[in-house]
Amino acid sequence: MTEFKRLTTTTGSPVHDNQNSQTAGQRGPVLLQDFHLIEKLAHFNRERIPERVVHAKGAGAHGVFEVTHDVHHLTKAKFLSEVGKKTPVFIRFSTVAGERGSADTDRDPRGTAIKFYTEDGNYDIVGNNTPVFFIRDPLKFPDFIHTQKRNPQTNLKDPQAIWDFWSLSPEALHQITTLFSNRGTPKGYRHMHMFGSHTFQWISEDGQTVWVKYHFKSEQGIANMRSDEARHMASVDPDFATRDLFEAIDRGQFPAWRLFVQIMPLEDAHSYRFDPFDVTKVWSQKDYPLIPVGRLVLNRNPENYFAEVEQSAFSPANIVPGIGFSPDKMLQGRLFAYADAHRYRVGTNHNALPINQPQSPVHHYQRDGAMRFDGNGGSAINYEPNSANGPKEDGDAKLGNYEVSGAWGSYAYPDDDHYTQAGDLFRLLPPNEQDDLIDNVVNAMRPVTRDVQLRQVEHFKKADIDYGRRVAQGLGLVVEN
């Protein structure tokens, strides 16, 4: 016999009637004293926490990461310490610019946030399905995202704003070329690569440091949609990627990725042909070949979307011993912005939620704040240093060093070559994918004013003369070669 479960309020009081509100007589007005009704309505009004400003719509899954190749000489991170070591993970995939109700197949980068629950705390790799980004200074990020959102007057998407900003920000060209290729509409989350995008640091047991970039290669293979396929899927199944991921895991067809890294000696950063900390650039794999590290498999769906996917919170500031940062300006900005967004959206105690809580012991002196539900430190003292044998710092967790110098100031990146890598990418595409890229750009730029079209075409021409010529021809523009 099924055990009877008594319906209660959130404070545990039994509910007498869950079908009929309390009223003054059979036809009378509803009474304010109906605390069960008030609680239900009040909680319902607050069921939606603010959606993420970016990466609002997403899907997630649990899995495991296993080390397959020895890299302990490069980093002292314990979860990478030996071949065969396994670490539980949670991944949230997302589109970037759209709202929670947007289509999964919109042309957009895809966010890829990976949380490793290591014995030294949580380590987050927060990146995209592209190895580069549109901008390289965090000061421009709010302005960039404003162009991707809705016009403040019409509340409609605004191609004029998008291309006006991009045409005045030539560093975006590499990512634009990626986005308007068929890689901008991947066929679900399983069929795309994942990248850490930024440059990070690995620190070895003896204190040696190297620069590192992360590449997660899909074992399912790359599969993209052409524009017409993506638009059709948006009309018949706007949740295609979310459904595809969930159903694949549900039927035991677990998606997997192989982790590779590129390693750059610290001193190479001073002489490499591109600034290695510029997130609009990639490192040549001929110069720094991919080194295999491990395998990531997603094998379990969430039990509750809100608790596990919507409340999940990631930040590149969440690191473990053996991992460090770089002077990548966009990374430096994200170290603050991500955690701050979670403090606003979910709450100051978001890291105590089960999906975000480390599986290693947590000891600190932070107290109070909204929604503190874990005992709040109990009767333990809440300051340090102290004489009560409270938690103390661990000297072994010291970050790696890198050299900094110069006077205070607002500096631009010294490298203004925004065109070489974008042109290389264009020429790397097969002819049919070049055709799709040109069509996608032309169709996206048709609503834009002529002055912005002309300005953007000049950037395409500098990357590759045929690239610019074909876009201009598609837009009906007459431009000089």
From TrEMBL:
One Gene Ontology molecular-function label: heme binding
Enzyme class: oxidoreductase
Transmembrane segments: none
Cofactor(s) required, per the database record: heme
Catalytic-site annotation from UniProt: 55, 128
GO-annotated biological processes: hydrogen peroxide catabolic process; response to hydrogen peroxide
PANTHER family the UniProt entry points to: CATALASE (PTHR11465)
Family, as annotated: Belongs to the catalase family.
Name listed for the protein in its UniProt record: Catalase
Organism: Ferroacidibacillus organovorans
